Automatic annotation (TrEMBL):
Residues 2-240 form the ABC transporter domain. The keyword Ribosomal protein does not apply. It is found in: Cell membrane. Keywords: ATP-binding, Cell membrane, Membrane, Nucleotide-binding, Transport. GO terms for molecular function: ATP binding. It comes from the Bacteria. Signal peptide: none annotated. The lineage of its organism: Bacteria, Bacillati, Bacillota, Bacilli, Lactobacillales. It comes from Fructobacillus papyriferae. It is a peripheral membrane protein. This is Amino acid ABC transporter ATP-binding protein.
Length: 244
């Protein structure tokens, strides 16, 4: 489980996170939702220290860090060994094939053998019906294919938690559906995922837990079903804005 307590992040002109306390269960899918600029991405990136909070406690399984104190490189490494991030932008290595995109991290960072890394990569490609793409370069892929490869590249590192920051926001509806099917498959396999998304239909269908962030504070944290049937005025206003 990932847990944060009293997590805060201040910018000169804004409070991005205001004493947030949350738990993200393992082997569950949590969707972080809320209006633009509410602090969703800041929260997600704080979970693997891409964003460094000003204060608060961050716990990942048996590791707990006091974020008000300086962190060592070893502490940061331990956090990032348990997590992998997928962003809006695919950010693949443009000079490498799909297969080499999937094996670069395990070989260079985790010091795995080429044979072991390629075995895992081919397993992932086959699992998601993408074996035919293994020798293609990113420029030869559609946007949806690139983002699916980005997800598999993160999975190739075998993280305990997969963090996704609006992974479909730059895609058209057809390509978005391709990526969401992959995420739905992962959720069905009990992969631990934390996803920032604006797609409420996807969140309602796939998420076990919803975290609603509003103005840097937690407006709701709990089961998906209860969120989408909430009588809370602010939640109803937010969900109502999604339809027209």
């Amino acid at each position: 489980m990932i847990e944060v307590k009293e997590l805060s992040k201040h910018y000169p002109d804004k409070v991005a996170l205001d004493k947030i306390s949350l738990a993200f269960p393992a082997e569950k899918t949590t969707a972080i939702v809320g209006p633009s600029g509410s602090g969703k991405s800041t929260l997600l990136q704080a979970l693997n220290l891409l964003e460094r909070p000003d204060q608060g406690l961050l716990s990942i399984d048996d590791l707990t860090l006091d974020l008000a104190k300086p962190l060592t490189n070893n502490q940061i490494l331990k956090v990032r060994q348990k997590t992998a991030m997928v962003f809006q932008e695919k950010a693949l290595f443009t000079h490498l094939t799909v297969l080499k995109n999937l094996t670069e991290g395990p070989i260079k960072v985790q010091k795995k053998s080429k044979e072991e890394a390629e075995k895992k990569a081919f397993e992932l490609l086959e699992q998601f019906d993408m074996s035919a793409l293994s020798n293609r370069y990113p420029y030869q892929l559609s946007g949806g294919q690139q983002q699916r490869v980005a997800i598999l590249r993160a999975l190739a590192m075998q993280p305990k938690y997969l963090l996704l920051d609006e992974p479909t926001s730059a895609l058209d509806p057809e390509l978005e559906a391709q990526v969401l099917r992959v995420l739905k498959d992962l959720a069905a396999k009990d992969v631990s995922m934390i996803i920032v998304t604006h797609n409420m239909a996807f969140a309602e269908q796939v998420a076990d837990q919803i975290v609603f962030i509003d103005n840097g504070q937690v407006g709701y944290a709990g089961p998906s079903t209860a969120f989408f049937h909430s009588e809370n005025a602010r939640i109803k206003q937010f969900l109502g804005a999604m339809s027209f």
